[in-house]
Amino acid sequence: MGNYLILAALAVIVVLAIRSGRKHLKGEGGCCGGSADTINVEKKQLQGPKIGEKIVHIQGMKCDNCRKQVEKQLNRLDGVAAEVNWKKGIAVLSLEREVDDSEIKQALAWTEYTITSIEPGKG
Question: Whole-prediction pTM value?
Fold first, then answer.
């Protein structure tokens, strides 16, 4: 009888873990530091003319909260307006000045996200 109770408890735990994991795969829930509502990111506008664009490939984003964290850090760079797509794992940076790749990497260096490559964009 005791074995059946243990198996039933384990089954409940497994079902709950699977349901929770699916939320994170869909980008729901509070992975990566809480609810997506806790981080407020306003769309940044460039102050001067756009002179170029860079596409940054980023690993580790799993939800909208991740997107907001990455966007907030990249938008702190002077002369950069970032739009992040966590599902594609990219950030498109609009530039009003020349921005070295090392500046971009430094913006995310302390986070849990990894920049895998940076390439010129279309703009």
Answer: 0.69
Cβ atoms 110, 80 nearer than 8 A: no
pLDDT tens-digit map of 106-117 = 999 999 999 999
Pick the more confident residue, 112 or 38. Answer: 112
Q: What is the 3-state secondary structure (H, E, C) of the chain?
A: CHHHHHHHHHHHHHHHHHHHHHHHHCCCCCCCCCCHHHCCCCCCCCCCCCCEEEEEEEECCCCHHHHHHHHHHHHCCCCEEEEEECCCCEEEEEECCCCCHHHHHHHHCCCCCEEEEEEECCC
**Paired tokens of 122:** 């279309």
Place of tokens 């497994």: 14
CA-CA distance, 76 to 57, in Å (whole number)?
18
